[in-house]
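Quick board copy: two proteins, each given as sequence then tokens.
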Amino acid sequence: MQIGGTSVLLFKSNNLNMADSLPKVNNLTTGATSLLTAKTFLVATTSGNLDKFACVEMDEAIIAEVCSSKKTAFAFVRNISDPAQNTNLSVTVQGNWGSAVYDVYGLYTSCNGAMVTWALIASNA
């Protein structure tokens, strides 16, 4: 299909598994499992280099620190989209795999994050 000279893929939802009708929060950061904040791009691997952490994020900690020091309310909605990489693969293939997963699922995880963010803002308006 073409829209304005650009080829687009038409999404057909006939066979889409809608899962549960109510959203669920899977909070992995309770108890002894921490979230890791990194100051650079960081990739988890199957070798267990980051297996002590629920997830890795690369931005929010510094924002939270500044907001806390200024007594400013804040919240974060993360788009967790990068898979842990298989260390049996070359670094190039690992990078390509991460990109391929994001190319396929990134739109959906980003849309979910945007909707949650909108709902949070709207509920506090």
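And the next:
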Amino acid sequence: MEGFTAVSDYTLLTGATGLLGEYLMRDLLADGHRLAVLVRPSRKQTAVERVESIFQMWEKSAGQLLPRPVCLEGDVTQEELGLSSRQREWVAANCGNMIHNAAVLTFHGSDPAGDPWRTNVEGTREVLRACRELAIPNMHYVSTAYVCGSRQGLIMEHELDEGQEFRNDYEQSKFTAESMVREADFFDQLTVYRPAVIAGDSQTGYTATYHGLYMYLKLMSVLVRNEEPGPDGRIFTPVRIDMNGDELRNVIPVDWTSQVICRLFSTPEAHGGTYHLGPQIPVTPREVIEAGYKFFNSYGVKFRGSEDVSDVPAGEMEAAAYENMTMYSSYEATDPRFDTTNLLKFTADLPCPKIDEAMLHRFWRYGEKDRWGKRAKPKASVSLSVEDYLEKMLPAQAAKGMNGSRNGSSADAQVLGLEVVGPGGGQWRMVFSGKDSVSVEPGLPLNGAPLMRISAKDFRALIEGEVQPAAVHLEESLEGDFPEGIAERVADALFPTSRERKSGNSGKNRNRTSFPGEDRKTTRKSTNPTSADA
């Protein structure tokens, strides 16, 4: 497709705002990958705002500023992924890899036009169509280990269609989707990741969703917290469970899952394989209950196995437990064992953390603090959108950026990558043609091109003329072999206030740009653009 000069080898990620997607965005960028994300807006936030909220969460926990991906507003369930023709041109010119991670965990859906079929199957069909039409050569597909359905015993990584039955529509929809991906004949390479049940963060307990293991943890918390302790201070929980307590549960922490996928993605020798992401030591229901005894100071659960007793609940607590456990009743038997031979070839030094008592306690603490997903999430706070500013300063050229600029094709053009880290930041390519022509396109240039990396706070200080002279500060932000005078050209194009002050032509507030929530205090130059206070 015509319209864009190649910027770089970007990877397009779907499902970026889901639990695993949040970690993949952070970890892929931390590993140095160029990343674009396909994100749909929510009822209250634009796609950019959703991504910004996630990165501000990561910045708060990490204590440092982080780079932003290129954000494309779209939807996997829409024709052409909901992208404009210009956005599709950009993807075709710059994305060599697709990580298709978008999926929903809806267990039952009788309507084929609804979920899980709409997202898991039809969404995958649209992603495949886009990969074919936009010539994306490499697919990394996030499936699930439970495409094995109700099979038992050892499930090999190379197996898929073994005539298995499925316990719900989710399993069958993911099986259908993986089959479709494998049937596509236009990929140079296909890599498939099959995670088991994904739980929260092994270190913090963080989660953005309360399915799977967290559903049981929430149920235990709600039931126990509604009971009064006995004279001895312990809480009695008379619940009988139709298991023996030693059934195996293949549950993996989300941070490890992302770390392993990123390792495989970053290892060319691993591409083309199929990988089960499962624990070396599964957790059991008995371990979960006993961890709960210590966390809540409770007792009273009985594993009755297949004991022939009345199905009538023994009391209100047991009735409430049964009512809420119905969704996962088909998973009460022990899990199969997932072969991880392929996985261990490349990740033997990254063993899956055992979900033990301490980790389960972290899960409970986070869940209760988060009110099991009901706590209001903080909104992104951005006083300056660099993208909006670039469009304001270079309106004609910036409008062509994601919309098909052809600038930069001349042999004498100077190309510079601009990466603004922190709130409101992003990645762009500035192209200087001739004496006065300046254009900007999304995405960093090819590796080896000079790069200017600066914090969002310092970028704003330059706008306000609070850092003088601007060209000197910008030159200190340059990396790689850059042409002489490029810092001055950037300063002239983006920071005219600084240029006018340097020439002595600015009045007290002349050409001062105001932004929501601006801080009038003088901003000092930071020597580290990624420090938390930069």
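Board note added afterward: The mean pLDDT is 88.
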